Amino acid sequence: MALGRGLGELLGEVESAYESNNTHDYASKVVDLDISSIQANPNQPRKIFDEEKLEELSLSIKEHGLLQPVTVIQNEDDTFTLVSGERRLRAHKLAKIDTIKSIVLDIDAFRLREYALIENIQRDDLNIVELAYSYAQLINEHNITHDELAKKVFKSRTSITNTLRLLQLSSYAQQFLASSKISAGHAKVMLGLSDNEQKMVCDSIIGQKLSVRETEKLVKDLKERTNPNKKLKVKNTNFDFKPLSNILSKFEASGLKAKAEKNYLKIEINSQEDIEKISSYFKLQ
To answer: Cα separation of 253 and 183, whole Å?
Structure first.
């Protein structure tokens, strides 16, 4: 299912409600709902909330009231599911306020996911890991390309592709990135390393306060230590295979195809019988 034409209209509704809860078109739609009747959006991509900022928002709501209503949809059992405004909902709970100003949207469950993800991408300051998961969810569930998503969220295709690559990191590295203990530049350098290697590099970045360039050198040295054979090159590739000519002739006589070139001897095997021929030859030697 492609992202729907009506999405822009819904975003416009929420934008208007955010600008002023006195807007006459939506004033009648703002209702006070019991906090207990609202459940968090299970598809909310934001996973990490700054407790200090939540406390500040909670104190502000106590003193000035909520200026931006949350948006919800109504469920069949007369409960509500949050579409946007989880920080505001959490802040209300911290403030021990029983009700919250809300706008009830008419939107089905499938479009809830689509809308919530795009609303977060466009409006909220998601960390880059949450942003990557949001992109992946939209692409996978709504069957759209990187180019199509780029147009919907006003990002370049390259930016979206590079962000999605960060999901290849280990969960340990993702936690460091999500909490801003390492930068996206640090994270990209670690792509391709094993989970244990990523953990070692993350710990080194934090413990030694490594720059991205220093991290690049660390990763390069690590790869050279773990893959020493990649540095070894055969200097002489003009070997003399004449001493093997007798063996090659015997292979050919028995119906085997054998070839010697550069720095290897190649024997073509097409059946189990070929393997038995080779085995019997070496047993005779």
So the answer is: 64
Provide the b/e sequence for 157-174 (b: ≥16 CB within 10 Å).
Answer: eeebeebbebeebbeebb
Tens of pLDDT, residues 158-197: 988 999 999 999 989 999 998 889 999 999 999 999 999 9
Report the run of H or E that residue 34 belongs to, with start and end. Answer: strand 30-34
Share of the chain above pLDDT 70, in %: 75
CA distance 120 to 219: 34
Q: Residue 63 — left, alpha, or beta (φ > 0 → left; ψ -120 to 50 → alpha)?
A: alpha
Half-sphere exposure for 208 (CA within 13 Å, toward CB): 12
The catalytically annotated residue of 19, 51, 86, 268 is 86
Dump strand ranges (E) for 75-217.
80-84, 99-105
23, 48, 118, 167, 263 from 177: Cα distances, Å: 40, 12, 22, 11, 45
Strands 30-34 and 38-39: unpaired
Q: Which two tokens stand for residue 140?
A: 């996978």
Q: Is the dihedral of CA 157, 136, 53, 179 positive or negative?
A: negative
Concerning whether 55 is annotated as a catalytic residue, the answer is no
Q: In angstroms, rounded to a whole number, what is the distance separating the alpha carbons of residues 231 and 233?
A: 6
Q: pLDDT tens across 244-268, in order?
A: 777 778 777 777 888 777 777 788 8
Q: Which residues make Cβ contacts (< 8 Å) with residue 27, sequence separation at least 6?
A: 21
Map residue 247 onto helix, strand or coil: helix
pLDDT tens for residues 91-130?
Answer: 999 999 999 999 887 766 556 666 666 766 665 567 888 8
Q: With 0.70 as the threshold, say if the pTM is over it.
A: no
Q: What does DSSP say about strands 70-74 and 30-34: parallel, antiparallel, or unpaired?
A: unpaired
Please state, in angstroms and rounded to a whole number, the distance separating the CA atoms of residues 204 and 202: 5
